User: Fold these one by one.
Assistant:
Number 1:
Amino acid sequence: MSDDWRSETADKLRSLILTADTDMVEEAKWRKPSNPDGVPTFSCAGLVCTLETYKDKVKLTFARGASLPDPAGLFNASLDAGTRRAIDLRAGEMPDEDAFVELVRDAVAHNRS
């Protein structure tokens, strides 16, 4: 990850995800020559979300986001996908922390059900 707003945003999101549930596990998956660090994934009773950085955004993709309530309207990408939903954040953007942690907790609860 680059050392700019994207890494700062990703670090803050990572912290929020890990505090959402004490059983949350972070792993790097899908390593390849073009991305030797892999993709950070967060799991708790199954895959919760992935966290990726792109040139113009930080993307959180929730594995079963289409099944989750989103009263705060955090999802803003992959809205037509059958199973997943995503949150794209650009420079200076950050989701409401309480709403975001609640969304992560709902994803964990969905995995456990």
Note: The two ends are 34 Å apart (CA to CA).
Number 2:
Amino acid sequence: MSKIFKAVLALVAIAVAILGVIGGIETSQRVKYPVAYADFIVKYSTENDLDPFLVMAVIKAESNFVPEAHSGIAGGLMQLTEETAEWNANDMNYKGSYDYMDPETNIMFGCHYLRHLIDIYGNIDTVLAAYNGGMGNVDSWLKNPEYSDDGTSLKYIPFPETRNYVVRVNENWEHYKNMAE
């Protein structure tokens, strides 16, 4: 074999290795940060004036895009309770029966509920705390100077699960926004 041919083979091998690493990284990111039901996410995010990447981040944190996921009494992609689903159906004047575990319905109700929380609290971290820890808890935390300086944002979230949830959703949100760039 000539030296030129060996050099070309070496360059090809390097290029294949680089492409393999890049492909592996991209595959790893898709596994770590899945996206499914994008059509429903975009539709209901748009209808509720939400950033679709925020909705993806919530779904990632809540269910990792597994539609039949359950945690306690909550279920579905956005981990709604039957009570929250019923509130959404009533607030939306939703006519007819529904299955809140159905991916489209779950995303539709979850986006409506996120918009509701944003309209109440305004601050996204406070919204996420309410989504995870409940509005009653957040309302009491906002009244407590130990947890809030201004009554609208939380300087400290006393529930470790909720505190970690807010961090996780924000990290997911940032990642999904960066994936789109």
Note: The helical segments are 3-32, 38-47, 52-63, 82-91, 103-121, 124-133, 135-143, 160-180.
Number 3:
Amino acid sequence: MTIIAKWFISALSLLGADYLIEGISIDSFYIALVVAFFLGLLNAIIRPILVILTLPVTVLTLGLFIFVINGAIFWFLSTFIQDFRVDGLLAGIGGAVVVSVFSWIGNRFIVEDRSHNIIHHG
């Protein structure tokens, strides 16, 4: 159940980025859900590969290049999801930052039930 809640929080975070960042446009909550799904997928699969490949640049910039990677992934999504528009890398970086901050705040309110993993000895 928590994965669905986190997915909805990501979608709401995307709508927040649409509201706050000039150059980002999401036409509906449904599109925000689609973008949130693919953003999570790319962040889980492609982002670690990009981080490893760009590690020297990331070290030289004291970690700031991670913002560029996140923005590029955000921008890349807009190239193949209709009704989601990001006008360039700077808007992508801003959108990625807003989504990260809003998602972090929203996910702090989710309490995960891990009681099913606990073995009680009686």
Note: The chain has five helices and two strands.
